[in-house]
Amino acid sequence: MDDDVVDLAGLAGRITRPDPGTAAAARERQRRLTKPAGALGRLEDLSVWVAAAQGRCPPRDFARARVVVFAGDHGVAEAGVSAYPQEVTGQMVANFLAGGAAVNVLARLAGATVRVVDMAVDADTPADVAAHKVRRSSGRIDREDALSRGEAARALAAGARIADEEVDAGADLLVPGDMGIGNTAPSSVLVAALAEQEPARVTGRGTGVDDAGWMRKVAVVRDALRRARPHLAGTATGAGPDVVGLLAAVGGADLAAMTGFVLQAAVRRTPVLLDGVVSGAAALVAHSVAPDAAAWWLASHRSTEPAHGVALDRMGLTPVLDLGLRLGEGSGALVALPVLRAAVATLAEMATFEEAAVSDRGAGR
Amino acid sequence: MDDDVVDLAGLAGRITRPDPGTAAAARERQRRLTKPAGALGRLEDLSVWVAAAQGRCPPRDFARARVVVFAGDHGVAEAGVSAYPQEVTGQMVANFLAGGAAVNVLARLAGATVRVVDMAVDADTPADVAAHKVRRSSGRIDREDALSRGEAARALAAGARIADEEVDAGADLLVPGDMGIGNTAPSSVLVAALAEQEPARVTGRGTGVDDAGWMRKVAVVRDALRRARPHLAGTATGAGPDVVGLLAAVGGADLAAMTGFVLQAAVRRTPVLLDGVVSGAAALVAHSVAPDAAAWWLASHRSTEPAHGVALDRMGLTPVLDLGLRLGEGSGALVALPVLRAAVATLAEMATFEEAAVSDRGAGR
């Protein structure tokens, strides 16, 4: 794939759904396990989803779950929409690399590894982390475009390339993480634009702004939303939104890269465990051009950011957890990963009625 | 403790609450970690709870999480309240011992171990499993007492003794599991009695009975509830219910043992991860004589059994997961255990703002 161009229609056309035959086999195996039918609730559905995604029944445990944290700064932070100063983005990237952040701790515990990608941090980062960097920070989206179209296209392509790199290296579960002071503002704008919601409906407190900060943020979302609308014109005609234009106008390089990442994961038939509102917004952008891609994504949790629930509802995704999380980084996905592993293990390892000589009278109900 | 007598008032009087000083230290440490205050939502509360229970900040990961599955048959199964025949209880005990059941698979995955205790299975089980066995099956609670008072007292004492054995052997987290065809019927009766609810409000489909079975079950719960009421007379006078009489009339040896188990865990200052409606009902019985004991219990999930939600609400416990589980065995608790470990790990292992040189401007909000 060329680094500067991403053929979204081509990508979308290459996405197929998880294997229905394997899903049927997994449902049948669930019925034979030594438990009442349906007694493991959502775990049963999750096990079927993993089996279908892997094309293998019983499914196998994830051997290489991989978090990619897309870091970027946002010019909109100048508008006073975050409780934290912008330099925290770069400081947190250093914290990720030192292994001290929540995503590191949770990844170790859940048996996943973490890669950090600097897409637009307003600070210098190590060369390998900055290999796909598009620019430093972004334009204030309430007044100007976040990126040029070229930058947005490059970021999209970089995200897709990173997904390819990870799948080629053996990743069998991908988690898009995020880091960037101010990144819930563009996420809220993207969700409001694509789900046709009012600014106040999608604007949350991010890292924890006070009431005055929240009101400033609503105004920013409102102004940016006005700037987003021209890129949605194709939606009415069925052509779909101008995704590159939308991400350039009100997104950012991190959001564009995450969009390419979750799209390409679907092309590569690799399941994705979404995190919070930022990965949810990127997924919604991807969904607007490739609805079938959502069949490869699982919503790990519902965050307290209101735009997150809106995005998940729009994509028809039901979150696994609801624990009041709002950290990002991929942290919520990593809290849910053991639940997904539990789903896989029960389908793969439990004895059947026949194997255990347990009466299955009643199991057919 | 004498095997035949359990001094409930004495037990209740020996229960103290988790350490408030350690809880305060844990809350303060949470504020210094490299994340916005509150961003890990429920995980932060869970980490504080574990720290207070352990009297140690930062808390440490559970070294010996232990599931004890209390198995017993119930005469009420004759009334056609289950989708499965009664012999499944003994068959499932064999399945547990062979390692093929959901509880075994989930325990391996979550780093816990499983002990099976036969309190009243209507089949022969190995000598070590049957060491605390009180009788085979129980009376049909819609028509007669489940147990004699002596049997109920012995089962209560056995449960407390098992908790002592496990804590003495190093268990630092206890999970009460259940196995017994028909066991959701007495559980529903106990919850209806103590939470003053109508039969239809607390009666679920257990392993999956059809509509006719559900209506039979409601009638059984109604009749048993009438038999339960005399044992609640003390509630009005403040003396509390006659717990031994209540468990003898409408409980069972498994439920009585679980009641003693969760009470003694609180006496021993050992956190308990409750499972579904059966352990929830036993906990509610224990709570009726020792409300402070609930400070040592965490609700792992909300099952689809309606009595479960009623019991948790009554005890003021908020479930961690809501995944439509209804298997029992301790399975739901084991799905939640990794979430609890995640809470502990983030508090114990994340870098502080100072350690990571990250700006905490805004963290105080």
Could you explain the architecture of this structure?
Two copies of one chain form a homodimer. By secondary structure, chain A is mainly alpha-helical. The termini of chain A are far apart. Chain A has a three-stranded parallel beta sheet, with helices on both faces. In chain A, strands 4-5 form a two-stranded parallel ribbon. In chain A, helix 13 (277-289) links the parallel strand 4 (272-274) and strand 5 (297-299). The first copy, chain A, is built from 16 helices and five strands. Helices cover 49% and strands 8% of the residues of chain A. The model of chain A has no long low-confidence stretch (mean pLDDT 95). Chains A and B meet through helix 4, helix 5 and helix 15 of A and helix 4, helix 5 and helix 15 of B.
Based on CA atoms alone, the radius of gyration of chain A comes out at: 20 Å
Question: Structural class from helices and strands of chain A?
Answer: mainly alpha
**Morphology call of chain A:** globular
Distance between the termini of chain A: 51 Å
Count of extended strands of chain A:
5
Task: Give the strand order, joined by hyphens, for the main sheet of chain A.
Answer: 2-1-3
- For the largest interface in this structure, which chains are involved and how many residues does each contribute? A-B, 64 and 65 residues
Q: Could you report the average pLDDT of chain A, rounded to the nearest whole number?
A: 95
Oligomer: homodimer
Low-confidence stretches of chain A: none
Order of helices and strands of chain A: HHHEHHEHEHHHHHHEHEHHH
Question: How many helices of chain A does DSSP assign?
Answer: 16
- Sheet-strand content of chain A, in percent, reads 5-15%
Question: How helix-rich are the residues of chain A, as a percent range?
Answer: 40-55%
The main β sheet of chain A shows up as: 3 strands, parallel
